[in-house]
Amino acid sequence: MKKLGILIYARTSSKRFPRKVIKLINRKKSLIELVYDRVKMKSKNYLVIVNTSINKTDDQIVSLCKQKKIKFFRGSLNNVFDRTIECCKKYKLDSFIRVNADRPFFDYHMMVKMIKIFNKDKFDIITNQLSKKCPKGLACEIAKTKIFYKIHKNILSKSEKEHIFNYFYKKKNKYKIKNYIENYYVKNKTLNLSIDSKKDLKTTETIFKIFKNNFYIDTKTVLNKINSKSL
């Protein structure tokens, strides 16, 4: 069995909303802990690792991880591509899933479906990001680590070092990439389910209050509630 890990990318130095990943949701759980728990409930057979930076600003993330006994890795703040490679090497991963820590409604059902396809077929990458049919905040990407190892770091642009899949999407003819989208995503493609501002945080808290702070509520149910205009 190939070793797959799930990397949750987190930093506190967001320009638009600093320290958002450690903000409490309805005074219950920090955002990063919420995302970790949503991922972990369907990932008992996989390593789940918080991927953060060595900058002092991210010491709070590390402290939280230690407190909650969550595995973590620290690397370059700006060169996320390099940080990803070093993390995969340390944990000897053959493949990994990229999850951002500002995604409180991460779709774990979608992730499971994508893992099954990835394990069954010989894709380099399976993603829901190649088209504009995925609501913001529901990104999920799986890749073989070997395609990252083969890229010479000097050829990457600053943007490609930060947004680690962009290089492969630009060179998609060289790689076996599958774009996977559910119909309920297409219907909701204009929605924003990520947390980029304090307003987004309040919206997220409102949604979870409706579900009585059930932080494990599945994504499709949330989308159906939004569509029913009950929010």
Write a concise keyword list for the protein shown above.
two-stranded antiparallel sheet, 10 helices, alpha/beta, 9 strands, Spore Coat Polysaccharide Biosynthesis Protein SpsA, Chain A, globular, seven-stranded mixed β-sheet, 231 residues
Could you explain the architecture of this structure?
By secondary structure, the protein is of the alpha/beta class. The chain has a single domain (4-227), classed as Spore Coat Polysaccharide Biosynthesis Protein SpsA, Chain A. It is built from ten helices and nine strands. The chain has a seven-stranded mixed sheet with strand order 5-4-1-6-8-7-9, with helices on both faces. Strands 2-3 form a two-stranded antiparallel ribbon. Helix 2 (59-68) links the parallel strand 4 and strand 5. It is globular and about 45 Å long. The mean pLDDT is 95.
Uncertain segments are none
Which oligomerization state do the chains in this entry correspond to?
single chain
Approximately how much beta-strand content do the residues carry?
15-25%
The best one-word shape is: globular
Q: Layout of SSEs?
A:
Elements: E1 4-9, E2 24-25, E3 29-30, H1 31-40, E4 47-53, H2 59-68, E5 71-75, H3 80-90, E6 95-100, H4 108-120, E7 125-127, E8 141-144, H5 145-149, H6 158-162, H7 166-170, E9 177-179, H8 183-186, H9 198-210, H10 219-227
Parallel strand pairs: 1-4, 1-6, 4-5, 7-9
Antiparallel strand pairs: 2-3, 6-8, 7-8
